[in-house]
Amino acid sequence: MVKPEELKFDEKGLIPAIVVDSATKDVLTLAYMSRESLAISLAEKRTCFFSRSRNCLWRKGETSGNYQDIQSITTDCDKDALVVEVTPQGPACHLGTHSCFTNPLAEPENPPFSTDSLYALLQQRKVALPEGSYTTYLFRKGLDKILKKIGEECTEVIIAGKARDKGETIYEIADLMYHTLVLMAEAGITPEEIRRELASRHIIDHKVKQEKMTGGSEAK
């Protein structure tokens, strides 16, 4: 474990901090930390930076409410830069986007798929409603139609699973996930909110398991 005093700050007393979404691994922003802001971040488990433009400490989310809960902080081989993995409570960028890095200079021919990118596309479809799009059809038909489709897809997943048909089960689960994401876009529920809910259950489950193990030892 590296100690904070081992880190190498620049001549202005700052160290670059690359902030990454711990769930999606998206790079959210590049900021700078001073010794004081790093100490605050470690103590509060939320990002605190040093604003070079304002020349003062800056707690992310202090005014916007878009806090970043720290999951881990790692330094590089030279100990002069940090990667801060966080669970964001809202957009990282002041422009309202998930990440500050949204202006590509070069793009891969086949961008990697993610549920977040699909959700973003569904949000675009909801606003633009392009003709000929099945997603447009669902949004125009409204909530009842979306819920009906989810019910149908649930049934298809059960049938495929019961038949132990792996390929068909994958296909039907994908259909169910797509329609569930459409419902989320319709209801204004983000993938991040679902991840936070699952993470909270994981923590509770872990604690329950620990309590059972402790209780079992005490009983013996």
Describe this structure in words.
It is a single chain. With 220 residues, the protein is α+β, with helices and mostly antiparallel strands. It folds into two domains: 4-88, Ubiquitin-like (UB roll) (Roll), CATH 3.10.20; 115-189, Orthogonal Bundle (Helix Hairpins). The chain is 47% helix and 18% strand. It contains six helices and six strands. It has helices at residues 35-44, 115-128, 134-141, 143-162, 166-187, 191-219; strands spanning 14-21, 27-34, 48-51, 56-59, 68-75, 82-88. The strands form two sheets. Strands 2-1-6-5 form a four-stranded mixed beta sheet, covered by helices on one side. A hairpin with a 6-residue loop joins strand 5 (68-75) and strand 6. The protein is elongated. The mean pLDDT is 90.
Which labels suit this protein?
Helix Hairpins, two-stranded antiparallel sheet, 47% helix, alpha+beta, Ubiquitin-like (UB roll), 18% strand, 220 residues
CATH class category of the largest domain: Alpha Beta
- At the third CATH level, what is the topology name of the largest domain? Ubiquitin-like (UB roll)
- Coarse shape: elongated
The number of domains: 2
Helix content: 40-55%
Beta-strand portion reads: 15-25%
Low-confidence stretches: none
